[in-house]
User: What shape does this take?
Amino acid sequence: MNFLAIAHSKRTETVPHFFHQSSLTSLLKPCETFNLWDWHSFDIGKSRQTLTEAFLNVPEATHLLFIDDDIAIPNQKSLIGMFDFLEQYGESIVSGLYFDKTPPHYPVLLSLIEDEKHLTVDFICKNNNPPINKVLQVGAVALGFCLIKREVFEKIDSPWFVYNDSELLKKHVGEFLGEDMYFSLKARKAGYKLWVDTRADLLHYVPNWVGRKSTVESMTTGRDNMTVQLVNIRSGFLEKLNVQDKSD
Assistant: This one.
């Protein structure tokens, strides 16, 4: 029986946008869940490490979902699709797709190449039209909406998340190196493949919403915000009951 921990990390210094909470509330869950929170906003590596340690202290917990407070999930079935992918193909790590905070806001589909002297991170898709409805193998995963099986943390030695690791920074050309790159390297060395599910088409608050143009427009343009919330929540409730919406 699966038991999912939803791990919340603070990434913004402001109150999270209501799209984050409303979309999370209406998100369809694949199994029983519980929530974990941590607020090390100035060291996201410590935050994810703390959350993972708490997750592992629940022996019945089988999966961990990281969800950051600057992410919104327009597609209610995003998590269901990611969960089904792991189960169907025997994989262990999959992220949803969101766009980078820094202009020009490329989709976070990443290559990560390491040799003895260099560590290079780059965007695979340098446009605003990443593949639709695909699950893609990548060199590194972002962790803002990422689903990971328990076995990954049991197989890989702690720490799993370190922001600006001093040894990796010696090989990396750049000012910062995120905890997601640290985790991705350790996971790959342990034999795990890394995936991004573009069906989980997310929005990233920067502090305006960025993402696939059609997704941003559908969530933020010309629509009554309260109506969006109510429609999403009611739709998710009816689907759980397997009842057709007859109000249209």
